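User: Show me a protein chain along with its predicted structure.
Assistant: Here is one chain, sequence first, then structure tokens.
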Amino acid sequence: MPGPDSRVQIDINSPVFLRNLFDLGASELKQVGAALRRLMGMEWKAVYSHTGFKWEALDHITAPNGAKAHSIRLSRKIRGL
């Protein structure tokens, strides 16, 4: 797990992510792109306290490494895990 002072790294190589990304309309794609750009410039500590991303733990989903998964808001309709 990254430390709170480490920069956010985004892996967009997931086939599910890419399929969903390519299905977005132009306005949604623009919002998601802007959110991803913001995220890449942030440290995790800032993500946890950023009110616009609506960061939350998901008890019903686990990450591939077995850790608890979390989600953030990328647009009004789209959440990232």
